[in-house]
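Supplementary Note 3. Input sequence used for the single-chain structure prediction.
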Amino acid sequence: MASVNAAITRVFDLYLSLFAWGGAWAGVAALALVTAVLAMLIFRYTSNQSAIRRVKDLIISHLLEVALYRDDLRVVLRAEGAILRDNLRYLAHALVPLACMVIPVGLLLIQGEMRYGHRPLRVGERTIVSVKLGPGRSGVDTAAISAPPGVTIETPPLHIPALREADWRVRADKPGVYDLRFALDGDEYTKRIVVGEHGARTSSYRLAVSDWRLPFHPGEAPLPAGTGIACLRVSYPPGELRLLGRRMAWVWPWMALSLIFGYALKGPLRVQV
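The predicted structure, written as discrete structure tokens, is reproduced below.
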């Protein structure tokens, strides 16, 4: 799974680098375009297109029936019942393609969250970095951290034995991508931290290879088995996608643009939705 995640991430790194000139909005639009194309193709090849076309025609005919015979209560009620029945048929035809979309669209969400859900630290900005040990593992009070030039460790560790966790506050001094080094029981592990790199993807967690959350955090290679470390974490600020001066979560523009692109592409791709 880790190798698959890494391969998918490299593909999206290459694709989205083509749109880096336009900032987060261009990247989200590019991701929405992929989502729309993928959704339309899945819908076309996994649904009964002729049945969907027939059901849509029936719904339209019943709507016209309501409009034309609106003074005849019996006809109107019969047409409205038929509209409800045909809508249920349409939803039944859509279940298979919607189920087939779950995994690919989920992968797109993960890739988008890694790039637009959080942003790199700004120069002078501070954050918390952590090491958390796995269940049954002791010795968090011996954990130590070091940072290369460009990042400053500002505080001694705050040990939280009940959570098997140690936290430090760090300051970003210069733009770049750096490796923080965590030492525990004579072994050393690294965690990437990104400062001031416009458009760079961030990864808040580096997880143990056995962690069930690993597919949702593909930004860095997993920690080797047997380390006893559950995760290394860098707390990044939330992403900043702005519209009319207001900050919003990237998923809302992504969803809206995916729908717009999908509607525009359904004709050229000959898809009944």
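Helices lie at 2-17, 23-46, 49-68, 73-117, 251-265. The mean pLDDT is 90.
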